[in-house]
Amino acid sequence: QVQLVESGGGLVQAGGSLRLSCAASGGTFRNYAMGWFRQAPGKERDSVAAIRWSGSRTYYADSVQGRFTISRDNANNMVYLQMNSLKPEDTAVYYCAVVSRWPYEYSYWGQGTQVTVSS
């Protein structure tokens, strides 16, 4: 069974940047499309980005297009989310996930990492 562990969240001012990391284990990582989604208190889950196993295709939600970049390192079983020009509305718990149906249905996800953007 796949295990995912996110890190890199924190508190940042609006306009700042954070880089989230996700370490995967317990599966054949290079076979999976991977994604990030987020959830704020009282709100529905919100897909953020996804990347094919080869890295050749990516998906971004309109709300983060041009600000966030997803990448992966198959040799080290890692997925990253570089977040620039952060806005207070980006505040949420961010989850790394295995994409079961491209680009925003998921089968496994981690425990999440909190991102808080202050205005």
Describe this structure in a few short sentences:
This protein has 119 residues and is mostly beta strands. It is built from no helices and eleven strands.
Share in β-strands: over 45%
Helix segment count?
Answer: 0
Average the pLDDT over all residues and give the rounded result.
95
The number of distinct β-strands equals 11
Task: Describe what this molecule looks like in 3D.
- Helices cover 0% and strands 55% of the residues.
- The chain is an all-beta fold.
- Strands 2, 4, 5, 6, 9, 10 and 11 form a 7-stranded mixed sheet that branches. A 4-stranded antiparallel sheet has the order 1-3-8-7, with no helix packed on it.
- A hairpin with a 4-residue loop joins strand 7 (68-73) and strand 8 (78-83).
- The radius of gyration is 13 Å and the shape is globular.
- The relative contact order is 0.32.
Keywords:
single chain, 119 residues, mainly beta, 7-stranded mixed beta sheet, 4-stranded antiparallel beta sheet, 11 strands, globular
Topology, pairings included?
Blueprint: E1 3-7, E2 10-13, E3 18-25, E4 33-39, E5 46-51, E6 58-60, E7 68-73, E8 78-83, E9 92-101, E10 105-109, E11 113-118
Parallel strand pairs: 2-11
Antiparallel strand pairs: 1-3, 3-8, 4-5, 4-9, 5-6, 7-8, 9-10, 9-11
